[in-house]
Model the fold of this input.
Amino acid sequence: MSWLWVALAWGAPTDAVQLCVTVRTRWADAELGDFWTDDSVPKPARGLHLSIEGAEGRRRSVVLSDDTGCAEVPLPTPPVRITAHSRITVQGVDAVASPDHRWREGVAIPVRAKAPPVTEAALTWTVDGVGDQALSLEIPSDQVWQALAATGFLLSRSDFHLNEPAPVPCCALKSGAQRRPDGTCSDRAAVLEPVRPPIVLFTGEAPGVRSCGRSGPHGQLAIQFPDGSSVDSHPAVHVSCRRKRILAHELGHVIAAMRVGARERRSKEAPVDGCVANFDGKRAPYTPGDSDHQRSRGNLSKEYTSEAMKEGWAEFVGIWAWNDPTERDCDYDTTSDAYDFDLDRTMDSVDGVARLSCLGWPDPAAPKRPAPGGWLGEAVDQGFGPGWGFDEKCHASRFEANRSTVFDVGTMFWSLAAHPQRPVPAADLLDAYVGACPDTWAPRDACKSPEELPAARLRDRLRRIRPAAAEAVDRIQRGALRCE
Ligand SMILES: [Zn+2]
Done:
């Protein structure tokens, strides 16, 4: 527990009271996983910033505890006005939330706002008498507050080393002799610098944005406010839907990009190679995943490891945030819910199959299983259960090296975080991931050295954390890594 509350000196000293603030939640996917599964239970407002004003008119600031969402507060002379600001500090990491924004991707907007706006909850309580009673305040359900509370919960479980230097001096240079194959740099001046908090959460509607969640690190996604001001100098997450899993997924992207100092390089253009195709369930006629490069990729479509690892890391954070790693169960829902396992252009899975298990394969402790459907068949078995009649064409696929799935990578990280004997802390897994220098890893098969391929770099970093953990990487892709 860390006490961030500032000692208050009021005109007339009063007894301190235990002040606790909770937030009401209303999630579309509340029942998912082990944590926050019951919306009828209010959640602690961890690290929430408050201001307290008494009859004398002086305002004092209070930050609630990281653990409990409470603080010991001597109250001023009644009536007391307490205001909640949509800002938290948890384990030294700051985050703010606002419902106001407009996304403009890829457009440079001059920054006029020095800082993102903070919403104030209209919370006013009149405290008549100060006794030894605890004072409990509740913020009603609203997306901006529940997103903030959920971010506080995630950060209370791991600070992801967000206030620490990068674990490896990753090179910003895209090529040249100064950049080594492992992504590090001989030129100190060309090293990527991590992006510092605050993390900015935007929760309003985003016209023209198809997906529920988006994210961008420093300077890559600009946010314009209704008054014309804008912010592009902070790492930002936009989540407009009430899905706790997607919020954690987007935070996973931003946390990784902040540690690296840049986004991952990736390619979504790996051929499906006769393997399972992912469909966008909203569009008809449904087309196999490799027919329009950018749009029909999903958790089980065959990807270059650059894409599988970028999205797989974020999926892992979505899994980890809401599942208890000490329990032998784990589930999550994928973004995609429609698959054509036999590539006959009809959907083999329909609504309801989006819920996947994240247990087991590729647990390094588990024995290798025979692979009737090839490597991808195992993933489908694992996610949906056996009996999907996996097509033989995938079985014969030549390309397994430097290919994986988002699902495999997400469950690989989970199998390490939830290892029954020697779990790896999530922040250590992130150290390994960002230590692979994903800004410069090879997005496709083209490379000068196989050490530039994502799986080789991740394997090398995991080996330094725990030698056995490195074996897990061999299970998310098969075959010898080589440059094409
Ligand atoms: Zn993502």
